[in-house]
Every structure is written in C-alpha cells, then in structure tokens.
Amino acid sequence: MTVSKNKFGVPQYPLDDARRLFVLASAIDLLERPTPTAIDDLTGIDKSSIDEQVDKLREQYGMVIHKFGDIYRIESWGDVLNKESVAKAMRQDA
C-alpha cells in the first residue's frame, strides 16, 4: 500500500490505520508547543478530531497525556508503546 506524504514528509495514513495515532503521539512529543493547530499543520490530522484521537491513545495504549489549556504533554508512553518505535511511523517511507 502506497501512502502519500504531506509537505513536511509526514505520511498520511488512512483514518482507520493505527499508525495515524502513532503520528499524533510523535507530533505531541516532537513539537515545542503541541496545540491542536500546530499538530494539524504538521500532521494533517484535523484539529477537531485530536481530542478524540488522544483519548484513543489513552484508552487503547495506556498512554498518559495531559492537556494544559491547548497544549498537550506526554507524561508516559504506557506499557504497550515504545517512543522510538512509534516515531518510525512519522518517518515511514511511502
């Protein structure tokens, strides 16, 4: 399956692809000020769906992610995900 990339080289995985959540987690970790607008700009993930997607990361993967105002912060990657492995989803060759 060929996956297109946006202007920043971030793969644009289908909506139902788990790697899309991994891109979100990587963006939160990577960005200095990970607001919904900044995450949307970098990843192409619609800012109106980010809270819902963050909830999935919490529920399905055990991540601890806090939101302070509009800024997200990862406290823990949980027991399932590995930060370095998750980051590979953002660098995936299309």
Keywords:
WH-like_DNA-bd_sf, SMC-Scp complex subunit ScpB, alpha+beta, 12% strand, 94 residues, 2 strands, two-stranded antiparallel ribbon, globular, 4 helices
Question: What would you say this structure looks like, in words?
Answer:
This protein is 45% helix and 12% strand. The chain has helices at 18-30, 36-43, 50-61, 83-91; strands spanning 64-68, 71-76. The protein has a two-stranded antiparallel sheet with strand order 1-2. Helix 1 (18-30) packs across helix 3 and helix 1 packs across helix 4 (83-91).
How is the secondary structure organized here?
Elements: H1 18-30, H2 36-43, H3 50-61, E1 64-68, E2 71-76, H4 83-91
Antiparallel strand pairs: 1-2
Helix pairs in contact: 1-3, 1-4
Concise account of the structure shown:
With 94 residues, the protein is an alpha+beta fold.
Question: Could you tell me the radius of gyration in angstroms?
Answer: 12 Å
Q: Sketch the topology as an H/E string, one letter per element.
A: HHHEEH
Helix/strand/pairing category = alpha+beta
Low-confidence parts: none
* Largest sheet composition: 2 strands, antiparallel
Number of strands: 2
Helix content: 40-55%
Q: Give the overall form.
A: globular
